[in-house]
């Protein structure tokens, strides 16, 4: 019976070494060895996948700002209020879902992810929400209300 426990203990410790269990960070840290959104992604010692993960988070943040300041439903041409309301609700759900994905990525506590999320939201706001690229100040009819922050 003790021989079986010895075999079980050896196989369990070998399994632990193969899975590379790492502690989850609870403070900000810098480096490419992290997990963002999915277990094992971008992986360890893989700079290319880490950069890809940063690019993905950046573009999701920009897209959230695009959705926050879009005006797809032309109020004068929409006669069906149910259809326009459903489209508005779908866009709202997409925007909130993607905003939560960015938040979960930031919860990896990786400094690079935090910075690209901020830069992505800021650049997206500058392009789609600020007055920098607006032709007139009368563009206030948005499909979705801007995301609010109770900061």
List the helices and strands and how they pair.
Elements: H1 2-19, E1 34-35, E2 42-43, H2 47-68, H3 81-106, H4 111-128
Antiparallel strand pairs: 1-2
Helix pairs in contact: 2-3, 2-4
> What oligomeric state do the depicted chains represent?
single chain
Structural class: mainly alpha
Q: What fraction of residues sit in β-strands? A: under 5%
Number of strands: 2
Q: How far apart are the termini?
A: 62 Å
Q: Evaluate the radius of gyration.
A: 22 Å
Low-confidence stretches: 5-18
Which strands sit side by side, in order, in the main sheet?
1-2
Q: Please report the number of helical segments.
A: 4
As a percent range, the share of helical residues equals: 55-70%
Mean pLDDT: 79
Question: What would you say this structure looks like, in words?
Answer:
The protein is mainly alpha-helical. The protein has a domain at 24-128. Helices cover 56% and strands 3% of the residues. The protein has 4 helices and 2 strands, in the order αββααα. It has helices at 2-19, 47-68, 81-106, 111-128; strands at residues 34-35, 42-43. It has a two-stranded antiparallel sheet with strand order 1-2. Helix 2 (47-68) packs parallel to helix 4. The radius of gyration is 22 Å and the shape is elongated. The termini are far apart.
A few lines on this structure:
This is Copper transport protein. It contains four helices and two strands; from the N terminus they run αββααα.
Feature tags:
151 residues; mainly alpha; two-stranded antiparallel ribbon; 2 strands; 56% helix; elongated; transport; copper transport; copper ion transmembrane transporter activity; Copper transport protein
């Amino acid at each position: 019976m003790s021989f079986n426990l010895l075999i079980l203990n050896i196989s369990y410790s070998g399994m632990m070494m193969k899975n590379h269990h790492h502690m989850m960070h609870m403070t900000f840290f810098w480096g490419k060895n992290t997990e963002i959104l999915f277990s094992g992604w971008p992986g360890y010692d893989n700079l290319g996948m880490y950069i890809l993960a940063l690019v993905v988070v950046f573009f999701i943040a920009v897209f959230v700002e695009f959705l926050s300041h879009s005006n797809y439903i032309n109020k004068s041409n929409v006669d069906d209020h149910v259809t326009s309301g459903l489209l508005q609700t779908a866009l709202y759900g997409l925007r909130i879902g993607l905003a939560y994905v960015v938040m979960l990525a930031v919860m990896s506590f990786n400094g690079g992810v935090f910075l690209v999320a901020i830069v992505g939201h800021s650049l997206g706001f500058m392009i789609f929400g600020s007055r920098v690229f607006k032709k007139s100040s009368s563009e206030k009819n948005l499909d979705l209300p801007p995301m609010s922050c109770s900061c």
